[in-house]
């Protein structure tokens, strides 16, 4: 049975593992450089991480990076704006996406084509992608990273091109994709907390 803990307590357990065992240390070696400011600021990296962690379904990662984003000056509204990008891209599923005059256009899947939900979904997508809380280049960059986390290569390439066209440097996109690599591993890595719990709860032989 897992122990009831708050996030700070869980983070301390993970930190102790990283000091004590070689594999967690290796994860820290992979992860730590990715969060330093570069072409993307620490704040933007942690905001993008919140969106990616929603795709990888890692509650620990969402809470962790939301807290770090807040510490670096992010607002709740900014974090939600990134989060809803993930919601849109999940809702779009396998529909074919293109961009015309700066707006998303979809060719809907057979299951929903011509139905009211397809029009409602597109309206939702356009609202979120038009949110003026996010600078356009950063919005497209985050969308490219989210698409990479979804293993949707067509969307990744589409959004990558849009990010470049809106002033994001290639280096910033490289950094965003590095976040995905770390957060994919981190989503599984966070579950080591449950492994530790299982052995702590085991009766002595």
The main β sheet shows up as:
2 strands, antiparallel
What's the average pLDDT?
91
Give the low-confidence spans: none
Number of domains: 1
In the CATH scheme, the class would be Mainly Alpha
- If strands are numbered along the chain, what order do they take across the biggest sheet? 1-2
Question: Taking Cα atoms only, what radius of gyration do you get, to the nearest Å?
Answer: 19 Å
- Residue fraction in strands: under 5%
Q: What is the overall silhouette?
A: globular
Q: Label the CATH architecture.
A: Up-down Bundle
How do the SSEs run, as a string of H and E?
Answer: HHHHHEEHHHHH
Tell me roughly what share of residues is in helical segments.
55-70%
Strand-pairing-aware structural class: mainly alpha
Q: Say what oligomer this is.
A: single chain
Q: Specify the CATH homologous superfamily.
A: AhpD-like
Helical element count? 10
Question: Strand tally, please?
Answer: 2
Distance between the termini: 18 Å
Task: Output the CATH topology.
Answer: AhpD-like
Explained architecture:
By secondary structure, the chain is mainly α. It has one domain (7-201): Up-down Bundle (AhpD-like), CATH 1.20.1290.10. The chain has helices at residues 7-20, 22-31, 42-56, 59-71, 76-92, 116-129, 136-149, 153-165, 170-189, 192-201; strands spanning 96-100, 103-107. A two-stranded antiparallel ribbon has the order 1-2. Strand 1 and strand 2 form a beta hairpin. The longest helix is centred in the last third of the chain and has 20 residues, at 170-189. The model has no long low-confidence stretch (mean pLDDT 91). Pfam families: CMD (PF02627).
């Amino acid at each position: 049975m897992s122990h009831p803990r708050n996030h700070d307590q869980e983070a301390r357990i993970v930190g102790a593992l990283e000091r004590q065992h070689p594999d967690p240390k290796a994860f820290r070696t992979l992860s730590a450089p990715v969060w330093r400011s570069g072409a993307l600021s620490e704040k933007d990296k942690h905001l993008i991480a919140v969106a990616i962690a929603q795709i990888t379904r890692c509650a620990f990662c969402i809470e962790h990076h939301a807290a770090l984003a807040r510490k670096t000056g992010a607002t709740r509204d900014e974090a939600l704006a990134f989060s809803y990008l993930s919601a849109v891209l999940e809702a779009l599923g396998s529909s074919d996406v293109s961009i015309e005059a700066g707006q998303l256009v979809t060719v809907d899947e057979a299951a929903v084509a011509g139905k009211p939900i397809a029009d409602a979904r597109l309206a939702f997508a356009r609202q979120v992608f038009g949110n003026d809380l996010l600078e356009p280049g950063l919005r497209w960059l985050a969308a490219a990273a989210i698409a990479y986390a979804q293993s949707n290569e067509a969307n990744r390439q589409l959004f990558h091109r849009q990010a470049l066209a809106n002033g994001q440097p290639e280096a910033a996109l490289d950094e965003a994709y590095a976040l995905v690599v770390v957060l994919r591993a981190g989503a599984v890595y966070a579950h080591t907390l449950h492994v530790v719990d299982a052995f702590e709860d085991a009766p002595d032989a």
